[in-house]
Amino acid sequence: xxxxxxxxxxxxxxxxxxxxxxxxxxxxxxxxxxxxxxxxxxxxxxxxxxxxxxxxxxxxxxxxxxxxxxxxxxxxxxxxxxxxxxxxxxxxxxxxxxxxxxxxxxxxxxxxxxxxxxxxxxxxxxxxxxxxxxxxxxxxxxxxxxxxxxxxxxxxxxxxxxxxxxxxxxxxxxxxxxxxxxxxxxxxxxxxxxxxxxxxxxxxxxxxxxxxxxxxxxxxxxxxxxxxxxxxxxxxxxxxxxxxxxxx
Length: 248
Prior knowledge:
- The chain has ten helices and eight strands.
- The protein has helices spanning 22-28, 54-63, 65-72, 92-107, 114-125, 139-151, 175-185, 203-213, 220-231, 243-247; strands at residues 9-16, 34-41, 79-82, 111-112, 130-135, 155-161, 192-195, 217-219.
- The model has no long low-confidence stretch (mean pLDDT 96).
């Protein structure tokens, strides 16, 4: 017997307890017959995040991921969706693979993670070789993101780290600030722009920016949820979230 509301798929969503953007973003993109079941990864809201402390802070979050996995598995989801991106970029492509394997081994189901989802999104557009990166992170973390995309065969032309001072302040970054960052990242030498950091509200702005910049703008929350849908054979085309969900 299928779940009466999640009769197509039940997704277990894993996100930091400080994250207030992933849950509404994923709900907005949820087709009929798919349900999202959010499991919060306990995350102290560090108030003085810096270049020196960023990785240590995210590793604290990473250490609590499997507890959140075990919690959400009591709802018997069919699939997991990772609503945190930083830990999926650590140590390049091999690090992403290790993280994914650990989650899948613990849960017994497959998972979509932000790093690999963005790669698949870029490949879906086709012809993308040179990218730029927008994040709420600090330079030390942007280096990890660049390392990952380089491992995956892309050239990272430039990046903008917004250097948010706490995990919750990421959700306070305005559309105007993100729009200005996109302008700084764009150029004739860039085929696409990728936004990482799941607590940064960018899904709607990325969709609009594709129209005025004329190139793929990948918002990680859209890419991750798109990847989860397509990995489960759900091909619904959704308007308002950019070409990725409308066309591919």
